[in-house]
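Example 3.2
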Amino acid sequence: MCKYCYVCGKTCNLELHHIIFRSKAPFLTNSILNHVYLCSEHHRGTFSPHGKNGHELDVKLKLEFQNKLEMLFDKEYLTEDDIQQTLEISDRAMKSLSKTLKKEKDGTYSRESVIISCMGGRLYGDSWR
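Structure, written as tokens:
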């Protein structure tokens, strides 16, 4: 797999960016769905997701991630296996995620609650209004 900056396409001085910050969703730390590569300028510069003028890029990345989750989680209720396999997370990470979710009577989790947890507790855009 060729790695390149999501913003400018550079292939050197790349840094791994967690779309949903590790502090908001630690169970997604190692999920490749939550990763994007950015060059150092676009990762830590003024207009980066971590920079003082980077809100637009941060929201764009989060909205794309949310849309991807909405597409991948295509059932209304999900089992732990559905979630773990889709997110490609470890058993430990799944256990951590499940602590943030309310289990339905049949042992499944609602698609909406899974996506909200994966998004760090909030949704972006108009898709859920």
